[in-house]
Amino acid sequence: MTGAARRLGRDIALALARAGWQVAIHYRDSNEQAQETAMECAQLSGDSTALDADFFNEDSVRSLVPRAVAHFGHLDAVVNNASLFEHDDVNSFCYVALEAHLRSNTGAPILLAQGLHAHIQERVAAGEEHARGAVVNMLDQKLWNQNPDFLSYTLSKAALEAAGTMLALALAPHVRVVGVAPGLTLPSHLLSQERFETLHTMSPLGRSSNAADVASTVCFALDNQSITGTTLLVDGGQHLQRFERDFSMM
Ligand SMILES: NC(=O)c1ccc[n+]([C@@H]2O[C@H](COP(=O)([O-])OP(=O)(O)OC[C@H]3O[C@@H](n4cnc5c(N)ncnc54)[C@H](OP(=O)(O)O)[C@@H]3O)[C@@H](O)[C@H]2O)c1
Prior knowledge:
Structural class: alpha/beta
Number of strands: 6
Number of helices: 7
Oligomer: single chain
Largest sheet: 4 strands, parallel
Helix content: 40-55%
Strand content: 5-15%
Bound molecules: NADP nicotinamide-adenine-dinucleotide phosphate
């Protein structure tokens, strides 16, 4: 589970551990929080570990699946949750911003799906003929409800959504690939708690997603053996509405 030390990733990791999954907690900078989350996950499901990797670095990303396998003996799923979320728009857009978002939010998830698929194929070849894996890619309702803000972030998630279709076909029958697209779920440094609470009500259901909604959807996507190549939108219907700006810019 990537980016699992804190915020939404931590809630998803704990929900998975409560459901019995033994979860490797990936982090980049949040070492202390990653150790705490791993300890709580281990208390819930018996084992966990914290693994660091910087997704700007391809070798670092590629090391993650083998390190998780070395710890647990095998790996059944990858949840691609880590994400770079920095503002740009058409005026500030540059290759540096685009490349940073594509590396973190698109390239790393694809490399991890590739690594899981290779691992599952090795297990099948070694006689574990029913070995199967699953990848969950965290997307964003804003792909279905676009505005000019966060251009590079949105492009990187749109590419990941498209990759979900291609990977679902390429990695079948051994690995399923499912997108989970939250709506506005947590406040950020760009959004006060008060403003967040107002924006959270702006959806057809009168509430966007909370962390428990998103976490239970990830658990469902990993459990259900027939879902692949599609995305579950968990956003109170925000994707059905039109917003002129990103929530954090409103
Ligand atoms: N929060 C929301 O309301 C919301 C709404 C829609 C979609 N989503 C999606 O849900 C997921 C989780 O959201 P969030 O707000 O909890 O995410 P976040 O706090 O913005 O980021 C999660 C983690 O990603 C890791 N990360 C960022 N860049 C990295 C890199 N280059 N290499 C390795 N790790 C990196 C960071 O780990 P360290 O702290 O260890 O450095 C960070 O804690 C994301 O994919 C996001 O796009 C969230």
